[in-house]
Design a protein that fits this description.
224 residues; mainly beta; Jelly Rolls; five-stranded antiparallel beta sheet; 13 strands
Length: 224
């Protein structure tokens, strides 16, 4: 849990700037995650998900199996600057990651009711840390430049209600000094909507690319 507060702040700063059901991917050879559809509820010390803030395993929604991960929040308006109070909730798993290693996280998200206000959204994200636990950010390879990994098909108030949306970080490359990667489900809500709301996640896949070979992650490209 030592990273759980700092990481979502990166998400908020970066992120402010359809698919058919399928079986869970827990048995995919290239998927490093455990309990990818949240059926087992493994403890973190067994390689399972670490949950923080308003997050829980839920049977209310499921794309495969009978459970999913719910990340929720209550954002309220206040009479003082910045005039709203928000929350970032989520879950993550951590893996060793050497500098220059390349990663891709995909999954699916849904909200059963329209999200109220902005910013209020759910995404999947990868973040890197050095050996001392310092946050190195969320990055993507773009030639020799370092930039934030893209978020695609964000679950927000513009996405269809009740429809599972394919989520994709794109290919993210570990920066110099990297020692670990954390793969997240995240819900960010600083809308001041005075409403309890959130996003459900299911069927996640974390792929580590070998050298320049992107074929290992091909099956994750369109959610099929």
């Amino acid at each position: 849990m030592k990273h759980s507060i700092r990481i979502p702040c990166i998400t908020l700063l970066g992120a402010l700037l359809v698919c058919a059901p399928q079986a869970a991917r827990a048995d995919d050879d290239n998927n490093l995650l455990k309990d990818t559809s949240f059926e087992l509820q493994l403890a973190p010390d067994e390689g399972g998900w670490t949950l923080f803030e308003q997050s829980l395993f839920s049977t209310d929604e499921a794309r495969s199996g009978s459970q999913s991960m719910f990340n929720g929040a209550f954002s309220r308006t206040v009479a003082y600057h910045p005039f709203f109070v928000g929350t970032v909730s989520g879950s993550y798993q951590e893996f060793p990651a050497s500098p220059g290693s390349r990663w891709r996280l995909t999954g699916f998200g849904v909200t059963p009711t329209e999200l109220q206000g902005t910013p209020a959204f759910g995404i999947v994200q990868v973040s890197f840390f050095d050996a001392d636990g310092h946050d190195l950010g969320t990055v993507e390879t773009v030639a020799s430049k370092t930039a934030r990994a893209k978020t695609s098909n964000e679950v927000n108030n513009q996405t269809p209600v009740g429809q599972w949306i394919f989520l994709d970080t794109g290919i993210a490359t570990a920066p110099a000094g990297a020692g670990t990667i954390q793969a997240f489900t995240l819900y960010v809500d600083f809308s001041g909507s005075n409403t309890s709301q959130g996003v459900y996640f299911d069927d996640l896949s974390l792929c580590a690319l070998e050298d320049d070979d992107e074929s290992a992650c091909k099956e994750f490209e369109d959610g099929t």
